[in-house]
Structures are given as structure tokens and as C-alpha cells.
Amino acid sequence: MNLYKSLIFILYLGIFLGSGFRTPAQSRDSITLYGTLDTVQVIRQRIQHANEANAGARVTHISPAILQANKTRSLAELLTDHTSIYIKSLGTGALSTASFRGTSASQTRVNWNGINITPPLSGTFDFSQIPVFFTDNINLYYGSSHVKNGTGAIGGSVNLFTDTDWNRGVNGRVLAEYGSYNTYTVGGQANISGNKSASKTRLYYQHSDNDYTYLNKVLTNTPFREKRQDAAYSQFGIMQEGYFRVSPYTRLTAVAWYQKNHRNLPQPLGVVNRSQEDQEENNFRGYAGLDFSRGIHELHVKAAWLYFCQTYDIRYDGGLFDPKGNKNRSNTAQVVADYTYSPTDKLILNTTLTYSHDLIRVSSYIDIDSSKYTLDGIDFDIPQVESPFSHHRNILSWQTSALWTPIRWMMINGQYMFEHNDNRNVSTWSAGIVFNLLKKELKLKGSTAYNYRFPSMNDLYWRPSGNPDVKPEEGYSYDASISYRKSINKHLLFDAEVSGYLMNIDNWILWLPKDGNQWVWTPQNKRNVRSYGVELYGKTTFHYGELVSSLSGNYSWSQSRTRKKQHVDDNAYMRQIPYVPRFKWNLRWNIDYKDAFFVWQMTYTGRRFITTDESYATDPYSVHNLLLGYRYSFRNGTSLTPQMRIDNLFDTYYESTQYYPMPLRNCLFSLLFEF
């Protein structure tokens, strides 16, 4: 009952404080264009997505051209090659998690059209399971500045958007790709749009035997080549979008997205006892929304339902264990009401009310007989799996913000959010400032924020060793950046940004043995971390006649050190936390001449320690990729684009995660037909 009383109270409070929150379109466009985005070539949809982070935060936008060239790749591959974010991967098509600025994978949040789609059970997102094909725009918010739609983004957030165009009739695309390891992809998209309604339908399927060759450096002193086994994967997805203009001021939206992924889970190098492990995921994401915009008022209401089901099976060749596995499911219902009002062109006020209900169900069909687990003649007592269980969680959050432009070259932004998570109440906030100087060619930004992450449902309730008393992680972040964008002449454009940051993260959750019992691990608040570093971005674009060439790159240096001992003899104190590279950078060279295009891209990832005392580390590596193709245009408005992609051009052996080798040189050929 207390929850519903709180809901009513906060609803009235939000309505009172936001008694009219929003800005005219033309004023918001100019504010957002120079205040929150790092790219100036922005369409209105892009502008509408940008106001979720504070104005002084670092926000990057992945260009539509890069998305178009990577439609058949996963989100993990895209972020690895084109951003400063570190992706820890177990291999192609395998589990891939993202780390912003030396934080953990669980401190990264993923939003889809403003809806949090991070699984509530694990609290981590697998970026290998999202094809780029299902998104039109991607924004990356760095640090703790993204508080609008809830908590969890201590390190940063990845924000995916689907957009639509009006009055374009019937158009679409069909793509097909085939390459190494019997990897094939087919996809199609059909768009129908008029003045009153528009729709998009997307279908996608990908399969790979994934039996790539690698160098085994573990079993013998002399490395030898062998093929990856039990690593096949497949993905199927369908998305349907519908947009309806009810009036000049009102639009209805309905989007449904179903994704099914199946993959084998290979063993790490050096494991002699073979097993077959399989994992299947079924995801359904859908929402219906109402958008109203008239004059100085704007209202957005969404109701969403998210379903996640993961099934895991394992079978041992030797019969040491009986077949076993588990099935984890979650259902999330979410309602969001977002209201904006602008009393003047210099002030934008906003309030957002969000309610989420999570229901998790965990079932296991493991029947473990401890007598079957014998090592060196000793029978070990393994905790017995308990009966299936379910748990409900209610989350209510209220956010309010103000964006003020006291003078034309300065903006000030502040955000505050209150969240009621089951029986816990927490507040978070962010503040930022932006200076636009030299006719908006030079931009200075700064921000500070406090954010937190509630423990995942696994942290709290995992059977038999969840810890309902574990505390939320919390962190303060500080950002400062300077960017410069200048047209040198009519042929040359220069764009650069330098950012520095500092984060203190406390009560970091680790799974550790409970009371020295190696068979029972439980989540504990055992780590405090200080992370600081520098991020660089630069791009030069040359245009002459029908020739367009650009060179762009990202560079990041990150120190992420433990400030708290986990135990008396802990050698992790003031050392780099595992699997956080100090250095990562990438370069991209693009040439377009008439209808031909060429792209060279390389990524360098520095050494990553795999132990807390820095005694062992993985080797640094650099990977080079090539993409080339030609676009044939026909008189009827259609086009055909063949292209070839060569990944790992120089046959580099590398491991993103120790004992999980990545593919050597491989090729993919594709055809894209647009009508």
C-alpha cells in the first residue's frame, strides 16, 4: 500500500512541478544541436533523442553511414571497431559485454527508444545478441549523466533508436551475405509511409558454423592450428513498427520486436574433458506510445512489455554428471509519462514519471548426486538445487530537469531523480554547463553527477547463495571536455574533442566464496574503485568534386584502480582491475569516389590483467579490417551494392578473454538491393 501512496504523491508532485514543461521546436533544435551532441549533421529525430543526458556530458553519435556499412554485424562488433568502449568477448557470436571508462559490465545500461532493456536477472547486457540491422540511430552517454530513465548507468549507457520518415511511399532493402565458416545472413526491410501513417517491417536471420581456425598456445610448447568446435550460433529477428498521425499535434506509435538466438558454448583452451553446452534466448520487446506536441507543450506516454527467457543445457561426454540445465525468465511491464514545457526560448523544464514491475521465474532441472562428483577419490558435497521460485519487484522513479540558456553562448543543465526500489529509496542527480564560443566552433563542457546501481535480481535472490542485504553500488563522476569544429575551406572540415574524467565507485559488488567455502559463492560489497582517464576523438573530412575522404579515430587511456582490500592479504590494492585495458584506440579511413567506396579500419587494445594483483595479463593486439564495394544505380530508382569485407586482415592471433581465441583472417561477401 505504501508503494501506491507514493505513486499518487509523486504523480501529483510531478504534475505540479511540470505544469507545462517544453520548448518550441526551433529553440530546442538550436539548443540541443550545440549543447549535447558531438555531431552537427543532425536531423530532428536525432535532436529529440539527445535531451536524456545533461548538457555538459559527453555524448557521441554513431553516424548512419557507419550503421549502414555494418548492418550484418552485431552491436558488439560495431562498438569494438568504432568507439572507445571496451568489449569483452568470448568469441564470435558468444557472450560480449561492454565497459565504459574502466567500470564493470553491470554498470553499463542499454535503452531502446527510452526503455530500459537491460535484463533484470543478470543486470548485464549481451551485445552479441543485437544485430545492427534493428537500429537506425545510436547514442553513447558517458559517465553518470544519464538519469532520466532510471539508474544503473554508472559507467555509461548505450541508447538505441528506431526512426521513421513520412511521405516516402514504398521503399525498402534486401540483403544477403555469405563468407568464412559457413556464415550466411539474409535480411529484408519494407517501408510504407504517407502523410497520415507509416510502417517499417524488418526480418533478419544469421547462421554460422563458427568453426574458425586459431593457434592453440596452451596444450603444447609449440603452437599449432586447430578448428574451433561446438561454437555454432544462429539468430532470428523480426520487428514491426507502426506510426499514425491522429492530428497535426498527436502521433501514435506501436513497435514490436522478437529476437531468438541459439548458440553452442565452446570450452576454453586447455580443458580436456569435453562437454556440450547450449544456450537459447527468446526476447520480446514491445511498446505503444502517444506523442503530443503543440506550441510550448510536449507530452510523451509509453507503455512497454519486455519478456526474456534464457535456457541453458549441458551434457558431459564422460557421463560424470547427469544432463543438467536451467531456465530463467523475466517479465517487465513499464509505463513512462514524460512532460516538457518551455515558458521562454531560454528555459526548458521537464518531468518524467516511470513505473516498472519485474517478475522473475527461475527453474532448474538439475539433479545432482554428490557421489557422482569425485576428485582424487574424494566425494564432494555440492549444495542441492532448491525448487523453482519467483519474485516480484516494483520500481517507481520520478525525474525533473531544467535546461537554461541565460546568455546565447552558455547553457546550464540540472537533473534530479528519486527512485523507490522495493523497500529502498535513493536519489540521484547530475549538473552540467556548456560554453559555445567563436561562433559555436569552440565548445567547452563540464558535468558532475551522482548515480547508483541497484543489485540485480541474481545478486539478491540467486538460489542458494543470493544476498538480499547487499548494498547498491554508487558513484560520483566528473567530466570536462573541449571540442573544436571548423571548416578550413570549402574542401576541408576538421572536428576534434578532448575529454577528461574522474569517477569514484563504492560498494562494488563481487561474487566471492562465502566464509571460505569454495562451493558457495555469494555477492558482497568488497571493492571501491577510482577510475580516471582521457578520451580523444578526431575527424578530418576532405571533399573535392565526386571524391570524399575522411580519417577519424578514437583514443582512450584509463586508470581504474581498487581503493579497498577484499581481505587482509589482498594484493589488489591500488592496482588495475581485471580486464580493463589502459589503452585502446581505433582509426578509420574512408574513401568514396562516385559510386565506389573503400574503408580501412584498425583497432588496438592494450594489455589487460586477468588477476587482481597484476601478476598475469593477456597480450595487447591490433586488428585490421577492410571493406570495399560499388553501388550500381538504375533508372527506376533502385540500386544494387555488392561489397566485400575482410576481417583481421593480417591474420593476428588474439584473445579478448583469456583462453578464448578470436578468429584469424576471414572474408564475407554481400549484396544489398534497395528499392
Question: What do these coordinates show?
Answer:
The chain is mainly beta and 675 residues long. It has one domain (2-364, 377-674): Maltoporin, Chain A (Beta Barrel), CATH 2.40.170.20. 8% of the residues lie in helices and 57% in strands. It has 6 helices and 38 strands. The strands form 7 sheets. It has a 22-stranded antiparallel barrel. A 5-stranded mixed sheet has the order 1-6-7-4-5. Strands 2-3 form a two-stranded antiparallel sheet. The longest helix is centred in the N-terminal third of the chain and has 16 residues, at 2-17. It is globular and about 65 Å long. The chain starts with a helix and ends with a strand.
Write the layout of secondary structure elements.
Elements: H1 2-17, H2 25-35, H3 44-49, E1 59-62, H4 64-69, H5 75-82, E2 86-89, E3 96-99, E4 108-112, E5 115-116, E6 137-142, E7 156-161, E8 169-179, E9 183-193, E10 197-208, E11 213-216, E12 224-227, E13 233-247, E14 250-264, E15 275-294, E16 297-316, E17 324-344, E18 347-364, E19 374-375, E20 378-379, E21 389-407, E22 410-421, E23 424-437, E24 442-453, H6 457-461, E25 473-487, E26 492-514, E27 517-544, E28 547-562, E29 583-593, E30 596-605, E31 608-609, E32 617-618, E33 621-630, E34 632-633, E35 639-647, E36 655-657, E37 660-661, E38 666-674
Parallel strand pairs: 4-7
Antiparallel strand pairs: 1-6, 2-3, 4-5, 6-7, 8-9, 8-38, 9-10, 10-13, 11-12, 13-14, 14-15, 15-16, 16-17, 17-18, 18-21, 19-20, 21-22, 22-23, 23-24, 24-25, 25-26, 26-27, 27-28, 28-29, 29-30, 30-33, 31-32, 33-35, 34-35, 35-38, 36-37
